[in-house]
Design brief:
- The protein is an alpha/beta fold and 620 residues long.
- It has 3 domains: 431 residues, Rossmann fold (3-Layer(aba) Sandwich), CATH 3.40.50.12780; 89 residues, ANL, C-terminal domain (GMP Synthetase, Chain A, domain 3, 2-Layer Sandwich); 68 residues, GMP Synthetase, Chain A, domain 3 (2-Layer Sandwich), CATH 3.30.300.
- It contains 18 helices and 30 strands.
- Strands 12, 13, 14, 15, 16, 17, 18, 19, 20, 21 and 22 form an 11-stranded mixed β-sheet that branches.
- Helix 3 runs antiparallel to helix 4, helix 3 crosses helix 10 and helix 9 crosses helix 10.
- The longest helix is centred in the C-terminal third of the chain and has 20 residues.
Length: 620
């Protein structure tokens, strides 16, 4: 079984000792994902692995599976997939957060490889992902009153010849011709051994994860068993997971955050995951009852994306006893300082940030959960991996290591780095001889802690979901009146960023903003990528070589947001607002108030603290 530290990692010195006391191979003897579950079942056979809440109602009787049962279910699923599609089958799934989702993913990786799919994508995009992955099996949630997953699955079966469709439905759901029922088929498979020989492991492909929830072209990232194991092990070590921990599992299981640090890392340490309904913190009933559920299940670790945690922090704790909570973790998007402060005020614990990437099999660095926590930092690189901040050469290549506090591009090396995209043509500029160019801008402090300072790539991150601006720009450029379009993220106190689009019209063109919004909504498949604001401008700024210069546009978008906040929401009429690119968080906002508005300083500072940019309020 993986050898985690006897004492929690709190400091850089603790981490250094952890790495020198034993080699990675000594600490991590597991060769396959199945080995993790075999070891956990041997160590914690009757301990609860997953507690499944469907509604979160006060009188709900949760469904629980222990580590021995989970191992058996994973073996049965692997046997099922192998019997249906032969050696090393690809298994795609469209499932919300369920016990069956974990069983499907880890069973698929044991027999062949998994292909997690964001079921919120449109059918055409999902079809492209499945085709690109080579998956032969699709596991999908059956008919549901709120979700259209099953309808999409039936469409996909028509679009992809030979696709084997497996339905996950409650017991007793009527059979359908040509459809395999997951529960029934699983019951027919042995759960104490594999019928096809040895499980997949080592450098075998374990999964293909697609990058982002709303990207235009499928980009599938390869995970191997080794890369996932190293990433998960590092997560378990820096999170300081213990076998008596109980953690909220609210992250979606088509995303590396939910499957690795919120999944495999926890299973490696014998943690109990409390799945708070299939919809997680998107479920209003779960948000409303969150603190009651935390108290009821004696949760020790709270986890979630910043926007979701921000929502539950608005709900009063009341008389619920949350004293078991010892720490919190968050990732998938930068943490607004105000959310971290409120988390500590309510729980008494620090909210620790995690930096992850699909291309690094889920994780890059963690602010150790057992440590005191550092505001704004994503901590140190995973054990036995390296993260450097590098200067960018004139030709765009990565150069020398930056000095302390100098901003550069974050580059990652280690066995957790993916071997590349399934389509190698996407590798250029990202994967280079085992080194991963993250595309993130950052710096290190004197203690070697990593900070994110922005992104060298243009991805818009809305509530942890990546939106490719090119998809918005291509859609808007298809309008007959549009000459040029540029999409950027506008700061948002809840979502982190919202997509907005600046549009330059053709000479003589006349079109309303309403018409442009209608065009966007009819041309862009993914609703989260619909621009919240479309602004027609005389000219979009360009570089000397004709590329769109987005820093100015991001600043313009931020200035509009802050102006609206200051004038409309806070009623301050005479403020002077300056927004410039740069600084430790990628953007600096300075608001200068008149002497007569001096009493509004604290109120404005509190409002600006909810955003990701640096902010300063002054009077003068």
């Amino acid at each position: 079984m993986a050898v985690l530290n006897g004492e929690a990692i709190r400091t850089r010195d603790d981490l250094a000792r952890f790495e020198t006391e034993m080699t990675l191979d000594q600490r991590l003897p597991e060769r396959s994902i199945l080995d993790v579950f075999i070891a956990s079942a041997a160590q914690h056979p009757t301990s609860t692995a997953i507690t499944m809440l469907m509604t979160g109602a006060v009188d709900e009787q949760p469904r629980r599976v222990n580590y021995s049962q989970l191992l058996g279910m994973i073996r049965s699923a692997a046997n099922l997939f192998s019997s249906l599609a032969g050696p090393a089958p690809g298994v795609a799934y469209m499932l919300p957060s369920l016990i069956e989702t974990h069983v499907t993913l880890w069973g698929a990786e044991t027999a062949g490889y998994g292909v997690p799919i964001n079921f919120l994508l449109q059918s055409d995009s999902i079809a492209e992902l499945i085709k690109a992955s080579g998956a032969k099996i699709l596991v999908a949630l059956g008919p549901h009153p709120q979700l259209d997953i099953w309808e999409k699955a039936l469409e996909l079966r028509e679009q992809i010849p030979g696709l084997i469709l497996i339905r996950v439905s409650p017991p007793g759901t009527p059979a359908e011709d040509g459809i395999i029922d997951f529960g029934t088929a699983m019951a027919e498979q042995p759960d104490d051994h594999l019928i096809f020989g040895e499980p997949r492991g080592g450098d075998d492909v374990a999964a293909y994860f697609h990058t982002g929830g709303t990207t235009g072209v499928p980009k599938l990232v390869t995970h191997t068993h080794r890369s996932q194991l190293v990433s998960a092990f590092g997560g378990a070590a820096l999170c300081g997971y213990r076998s008596d921990d109980i953690m909220t599992a609210t992250l979606p299981l088509f995303h590396v955050a939910g499957t690795i640090v919120g999944g495999l890392s926890a299973f490696m340490a014998g943690v109990e995951l409390v799945v708070m309904s299939p919809g997680g913190l998107r479920n209003p009933a779960i948000v409303e009852g969150f603190w009651r559920l935390v108290a009821q299940h004696k949760v020790t670790i709270l986890g979630g994306v910043p926007t979701a945690l921000g929502a539950v922090l608005q709900v009063p704790v009341g008389d619920n006893d949350i004293s078991a909570v010892r720490t919190g973790l968050t990732g998938a998007a930068l943490l607004p300082p105000a959310v971290g402060t409120r988390f500590k005020d309510i729980t008494g614990c620090h909210l620790h940030e995690v930096l992850g990437m699909t291309e690094s099999s889920g994780l890059v660095s963690i602010d150790p959960l057992s440590g005191p926590g550092s505001v704004g930092s994503v901590g140190w690189a995973l054990p036995y991996t390296q993260v450097e901040v590098l200067r960018v050469n004139e030709d765009g290549s990565l150069g020398e290591t930056c000095a302390t506090d100098e901003i550069g591009v974050i580059a990652i090396q280690g066995d957790h780095v993916s071997p590349g995209y399934r389509d190698p043509k996407h590798n250029d500029g990202v994967f280079d001889a085992g080194r991963l160019n993250s595309g993130d801008l950052g710096y290190k402090d004197a203690q070697g802690r990593i900070y994110i300072a922005g992104r060298s790539k243009d991805i818009i991150i809305r509530s942890g979901h990546n939106i490719d601006p090119a998809m918005i720009e291509n859609a808007m450029a298809s309008h007959p009146a549009v000459a040029l379009a540029a999409a950027v993220g506008m700061p948002d106190a809840y979502a982190g960023e919202l997509p907005v689009c600046f549009v330059e019209l053709l000479p003589g063109a006349d079109v309303s903003v309403e018409d442009l919004h209608q065009h966007a909504q009819s041309s862009i498949d993914e609703r989260p990528a619909w621009p919240k604001l479309i602004q027609v401008v005389d000219a979009i700024p360009l570089t000397t070589v004709g590329k769109i210069f987005k820093p100015d546009l991001r600043c313009d978008a931020a200035k509009q947001k802050v102006t609206d906040l200051v004038q409309s929401e806070l009623g301050i009429a005479n403020a002077r607002i300056e927004v410039v690119a740069g600084g430790s968080r990628g953007m600096r906002v300075t608001v200068t108030l008149s002497e007569g508005d001096r009493t509004s300083v604290e109120k404005l500072e509190n409002a600006l603290a909810a955003f990701l940019f640096e902010a300063q309020v002054q009077v003068g």
